[in-house]
């Protein structure tokens, strides 16, 4: 019997005791603030919408595992929703109601729905990042050792290295041949595909390893991926066969040449990522959670894009910005610190302004950026009953209680943060309350425990209003992260309400 037949999430439309208790609490003590589970706030129809939305997200998460795949997916969805490449629209001029997008080197994308109000008045922006922690191949990765073929790697972003051992890995990426031909690899996802793995030491011989700190037990140079174990050719037999060098490496090269027309040198112009193989899954008897790789921060990318696609419109221009390299500091020409966002806005301003009405373009751009209001859509740490000691329980986000806002991120003394001011916080509260959004407040951890940042600080340098707002996660940065479906749905609704606002 299928689980959903016995454990349907749609059973029961009665008002819960928790909902009544919370409403009674508000009636008797209106001075306090008490959050409640999202499920208790939803009607039967809304619960079905929540589950249906989460299923679409789960399918997306199962197939989209790199920045390039994310941009390609969002671009295809945008075209289906009536968006066009900016260059196709710019020639005849940009007008209110137009839907356009900009792509930066297949690793970042800006979606824009143009409003009637002048761009100098600013835009409503939701920004997120497409990149996720993973294992990258080194430029010259393939080698042979102990009659096995392996890949040398360089991990990307903040990972716990031990979590990546002994799990099935898939290879996603592209190889660009010298003539410009693009060869794609996506191997390890289909049931009939082989997978790859990083081996670990058996516990019988791991005495020294297990006495080390977790951060030192596995070295970065030890994250080598097993990719082959059969030799090339027939060999010559006996001792002579042992002298033949690199037959196992050669066998892998022959397979790659046969399927991708590449040689070993072509690894230099390749971007291959090793990611956890397999689909995202529902978690729990009640299917309350989604588990899968890359939810930091693709859960916010998906919900933000879908929010813009479903936006009812408004006088203010609305945009969703999805960028690369946040996990390594937002650098590079596809990260938030690049000029992609500025350049795209400059192009939009020029194309949307009649020649006779143009003020100096640089001034219009600066006014637009300064007057923009933005949500930095990134995940937060959720309260985990197994590790409650690292979070301040009075200020921690909780699973299933809605989208979480963070006034500030950074670490310890608020270093490396963008802190939203009280006025903008009040404005976002009003938007969420008016739209009936279930939301909560969260932080990344106790003051001296650690911390982290988002793209908010790089948006804030333009003078715009910025607030961090995203989905709480369990097991953040692990190969298998966990989100609550109610929080995913409320993030979508929150971003949609914000993008529809004209404040």
UniProtKB/TrEMBL annotation:
What EC number(s) does its UniProt record assign? Answer: 3.4.11.-
Q: What organism is the protein native to?
A: Heliomicrobium gestii (Heliobacterium gestii)
Record flagged with keyword Ribosomal protein: no
Q: What is this protein called?
A: M18 family aminopeptidase
Which keywords does the record carry?
A: Aminopeptidase, Hydrolase, Metal-binding, Metalloprotease, Protease, Zinc
**What protein family is recorded?**
Belongs to the peptidase M18 family.
Q: Name one GO molecular function term.
A: zinc ion binding
Give the record's GO biological process terms.
Answer: proteolysis
What's the cofactor?
Zn(2+)
Its domain of life reads Bacteria
Query: Cellular component per GO?
Result: cytoplasm
Top enzyme class: hydrolase
């Amino acid at each position: 019997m299928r689980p959903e037949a016995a454990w349907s999430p749609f059973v029961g439309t009665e008002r819960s005791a928790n909902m009544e208790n919370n409403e009674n609490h508000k009636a008797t003590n209106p001075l306090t603030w008490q959050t409640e589970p999202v499920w208790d706030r939803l009607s039967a129809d809304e619960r079905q919408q929540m589950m249906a939305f989460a299923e679409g997200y789960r399918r997306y998460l199962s197939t989209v595992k790199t920045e390039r795949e994310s941009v390609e997916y969002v671009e295809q969805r945008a075209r289906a929703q009536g968006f066009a490449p900016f260059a196709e629209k710019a020639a005849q001029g940009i007008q209110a109601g137009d839907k356009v997008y900009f792509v930066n080197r297949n690793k970042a994308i800006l979606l824009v729905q143009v409003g009637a109000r002048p761009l100098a008045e600013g835009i409503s922006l939701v920004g997120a990042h497409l990149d996720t922690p993973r294992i990258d191949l080194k430029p010259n990765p393939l080698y042979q050792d102990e009659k096995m073929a392996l890949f040398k790697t360089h991990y990307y972003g903040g990972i716990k290295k031990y979590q990546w051992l002994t799990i099935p890995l898939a290879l996603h990426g592209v190889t660009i041949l010298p003539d410009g031909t693009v060869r794609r690899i996506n191997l390890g996802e289909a049931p009939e595909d082989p997978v790859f793995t990083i081996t670990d030491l058996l516990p019988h011989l791991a005495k020294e390893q297990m006495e080390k700190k977790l951060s030192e037990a596995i070295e970065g140079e030890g994250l080598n991926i097993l990719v082959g174990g059969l030799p090339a050719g027939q060999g010559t037999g006996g001792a002579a066969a042992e002298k033949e060098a690199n037959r196992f490496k050669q066998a892998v090269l022959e397979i790659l040449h046969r399927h991708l027309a590449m040689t070993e040198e072509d690894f230099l112009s390749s971007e291959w990522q090793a990611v956890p193989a397999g689909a995202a899954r529902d978690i729990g008897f009640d299917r309350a959670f989604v588990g899968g790789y890359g939810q930091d921060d693709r859960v916010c990318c998906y919900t933000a894009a879908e929010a813009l696609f479903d936006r009812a419109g408004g006088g203010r221009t609305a945009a969703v910005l999805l960028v690369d390299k946040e996990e390594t500091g937002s650098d590079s020409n596809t990260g938030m610190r690049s000029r992609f966002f500025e350049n795209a806005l400059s192009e939009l301003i020029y194309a949307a302004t009649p020649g006779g009405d143009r003020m100096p373009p640089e001034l219009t751009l600066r006014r637009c950026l300064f007057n923009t209001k933005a949500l930095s859509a990134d995940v937060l740490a959720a309260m985990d009953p197994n590790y409650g000691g690292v979070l301040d329980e009075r200020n921690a986000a909780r699973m299933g209680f809605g989208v979480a806002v963070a006034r500030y991120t950074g670490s310890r003394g608020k270093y490396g943060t963008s802190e939203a001011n009280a006025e903008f916080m009040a404005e976002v509260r009003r938007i969420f309350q008016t739209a009936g959004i279930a939301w909560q407040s969260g932080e990344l951890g106790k003051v001296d425990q650690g911390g982290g940042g988002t793209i908010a600080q790089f948006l804030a340098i333009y003078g715009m209003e910025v607030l961090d707002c995203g989905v709480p996660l369990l097991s953040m940065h692990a190969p298998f992260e966990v989100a609550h479906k109610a929080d995913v749905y409320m993030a979508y609704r929150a971003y949609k309400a914000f993008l529809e606002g004209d404040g």
